[in-house]
Amino acid sequence: MKNTYFEKIKNARVYDVAEKTPLEYQPILSARLNNRILLKREDTQPVFSFKLRGAYNKMVNLSQEARDKGVIAASAGNHAQGVALAAKKLGCRAVIVMPTTTPQIKVDAVQSRGAEVVLFGDSYSDAYVHALELEKTKGLTFVHPYDDPDVIAGQGTIAMEILEQHPEPIDAIFCCVGGGGLIAGIAAYVKAVRPEIKVIGVEAVDADAMTQSLKAGKRVTLEQVGLFADGAAVKQVGENTFKLCQEYVDDMIVVDNDAICAAIKDVFEDTRSILEPAGALATAGIKEYIKRHQLSG
User: Of 94, 159, 186, 234, which has the fewest beta carbons less than 10 angstroms from its beta carbon?
Assistant: First the structure.
C-alpha cells in the first residue's frame, strides 16, 4: 500500500485551533522503570484532548457550501468538543448527537462552545445511527470521530511534532487505541520518516477491538465494551484505520483497569495532572511492555 498519508499529514490544517503541545520527560516514572519516558501533553489542548486536530482538519477542507449547511457528529466526549470548537472557529452550525446517558458536565461543555446537542439512545452506537439519519434529513455533513482520511491526517500531526521535538533516537511510540484514528495517523507518518521506530497500540482488556481485528485479519465487532476507559470504548474499529494499522503498527498491548488506575497515579506524580482513563492507556502500555520484554536503559 502506497503511503499517501505522509503528504496529507504534512499539509493538515490544525494550527488555527490546536497548539503544538510539549513533549515532556517524566523523571519519576523514568527512574522507576529504568527507561527514558516522555509524554506528549495533548491534555493541554484547548479542549483537553487531541480530537480537535482531526475534527478541524476535516471541517476546514469541506466546501463552503457544505460548511454553510453545517456539520453533525456523534460523540459523548472529546470528539464532540473538538467539532464544537472547530465549528465556532469556522462560523458554521454544529449538531452533536449524544447518548441520553451522557453526564451533564459534558453536555454543558459542548453547548458552551455553541453547538446544538441532541440526546438520543443509550449508547454511542444508538447516537451514531441517529446522527446518520439526521445527516440525510437535514443536509448536514457527518464528521466521523476516527474513520476518515482528513481526521486521521489531523491526528497524525502529533507524530510530526514528536519527531521534530525529539530528533534523537526513539525506540517506541505508544498510543491509546479506540477506533484507531490516532494510531493510524501516527503510524503512517512515523513509518514514512523513521521506520525503525516501533509504533505500539494500547487497548483496555474489555475494549480490545483493534487487537482482536488484527489477530483475525479482518474487522471484528465486539458484543459489548467496558466503559471505564470510555474515551476508547469502541465496538468496531474503522475501515481506513484498520488497514493502516495492519500495514504500519508493530504491536498491540491490552491492559486491565488496575493497570490504567496505576498509570493515572504515575502520571499525576510527575505532572500533577489527572488523566481520564483513556488518556492513561499509553502509559499503562509502556509499563506492561517494559515488564514483558525486561527492557532497561
Answer: 234
Distance CA 177, CA 214 (A): 13
pTM: 0.95
Q: What is the mean pLDDT of residues 210-220?
A: 98
Confidence bin at 49 (pLDDT 50/70/90): very high
Per-residue pLDDT at 231: 85
Domain 52-142 has CATH 1.10.10.10: no
